[in-house]
Amino acid sequence: MMCNDARLLLHAYLDDELDAAQSVAVTRHMHGCPACAASYADYARLHKALAQPALYRRAPDALRARWTAPGSPAAGNARTRRRWPGLAMAAGFIGALLLTAPAWFYLWQQHGIGANPLAGEVVSSHVRSLQQQHLMDVVSTDQHTVKPWFEGKLDFSPRVKDLAGVGFPLAGGRLDALDGHSVAALVYKRRLHVINLYQWPSTVTTSAAVVTQWHGYTVIRWIAGNMNYVAVSDVNETDLRQFVLAFQDDAATPPMR
Ligand SMILES: [Zn+2]
């Protein structure tokens, strides 16, 4: 892959919107290209800055009422346009923003209400796993021990990767339940912190990662290869994003079959 191609794909890479082959190609390119890696780091910083919850603003009630009233937004007649010139300009501006900067919309969505309805349940499960000395049913840093342990206990095979090389050693795994499903919970460590990574099958093939903050915990949810993944921890968001990227990065660590 050449720099020009890589640059075109960096935003989509950041939003986890590339397919596996493109994603691997971009990752490989950045490993050998400091310039593109620096651009990516800049985008990631901007991405994070724009995602601050403090930037979220609820629209004024009058504006919300106009948008949610049936048939009214597009059907505004000349009289209402005269009465609401500021409103029309605001709507036009927001419309232009959405057209020209879909990434912004995505960022707003990320931290919007209900972005991840599972977040509360995931954090509760994470906290429970730490409190009840029931963090792990199988204690091993070896992915070749942890993965087979799940066989026969679940009707799917979780993806298990050791990420010790990038600072997230595998510690073990356990069976858990989320959203009415039996799930595999992999336990990783980040220094003294614990990261729980939940997996269960999805009817959807892929979806971009969604980051949610919940009472001091970060939850990142994505779908890949018809599998739901939810990572949760009290490590800072940057570290958890790094963990997710490392887990998704097939170039660095080939997935087990
Ligand atoms: Zn490059």
N-end to C-end Cα span = 27 Å
What general outline do the C-alpha atoms trace? globular
Task: Tell me the CATH architecture of the largest domain.
Answer: 2-Layer Sandwich
User: Mean pLDDT, rounded to whole units?
Assistant: 81
Order of helices and strands: HHHHHHHHEHEEEEEEH
User: Could you describe the largest sheet, including whether it forms a barrel?
Assistant: 7 strands, antiparallel
Q: How helix-rich are the residues, as a percent range?
A: 40-55%
CATH-defined superfamily of the largest domain: MucB/RseB, C-terminal domain
CATH class of the largest domain: Alpha Beta
List the uncertain runs.
73-81, 101-114, 252-257
Our count of helices gives: 10
Radius of gyration over C-alpha positions, nearest whole angstrom? 21 Å
How many β-strand runs?
7
Which structural category do the helix and sheet elements fall into? alpha+beta
- Order of the strands making up the biggest sheet: 1-2-3-4-7-6-5
Give the ligands present. Answer: zinc ion
Question: Could you walk me through the main structural features you see in this protein, from its secondary elements to its overall organization?
Answer:
The protein is of the alpha+beta class. It has helices at 3-14, 20-32, 34-50, 61-68, 78-83, 85-100, 102-111, 119-131, 143-149, 237-248, and strands at residues 138-139, 170-178, 181-190, 193-201, 207-214, 217-224, 227-233. It has a seven-stranded antiparallel sheet, with helices on both faces. The radius of gyration is 21 Å and the shape is globular. It starts with a helix and ends in a 9-residue tail after the last helix. 26% of the residues are buried. It binds zinc ion. Zinc ion (ZN) binds at residues 3, 6, 29, 33, 35-36.
